[in-house]
Amino acid sequence: MQTLIGKKAPSFSAGAVINGNQIVEEFSLDQYIGKKEVVFFFYPLDFTFVCPTELIAFQEKLAEFEARNVAVVGCSVDSPYSHFAWLNTEKNKGGIKGVTYPLVADLSKTISENYGVLASEYDYNEEGNAVSTGEPVAYRGLFLIDKRGTVRHSVINDLPLGRSVDEAIRMVDALQHFEENGEVCPANWNKGKEAMQATAAGVADYLSKN
User: Fold this and answer.
1) 51 is catalytic
2) Which residues form the active site (predicted)?
């Protein structure tokens, strides 16, 4: 798989549920270009096990993303109607009621494929029919897209491995610090810590202090 880092995020228009209660037919990330960074993440399926913990964790931190002028958008291979049902199911019954950021429906699996996170591949059998190998769901991919629509960070986890929402926020902070100050962010950098100039002298100065 070729990386999307430094490239324009693949464009799409698809059905989605917004505000937790409204199905729209043509949702696109293009609406954020020039306005907001986007954390666009994939998860395998609605009504599963690790997935609700992730989606609820993003909701619990949504105010922190919004304070940074960042849109959070989720996506899976389910239909918008499945998203709607899950969004309106109580948490104690396996639902994610209370999640308000958009959930995109990738029923055709083309969005997952274009972002390189589809867990299955397609081949042809002896009869010439297309068959799927592997699980036809999305890995736990996450993409940080800047205001120009360019992918600046990505991470892809296997299906059993839940992500860190705090790490997604840290990467947003790092990108915004670089964009605003021109300084690069060293290992384990967090907002409020010292960054450094991308020069030999800058690295030496940083290392001498740390």
Assistant:
1) yes
2) 51 (cysteine sulfenic acid (-soh) intermediate)
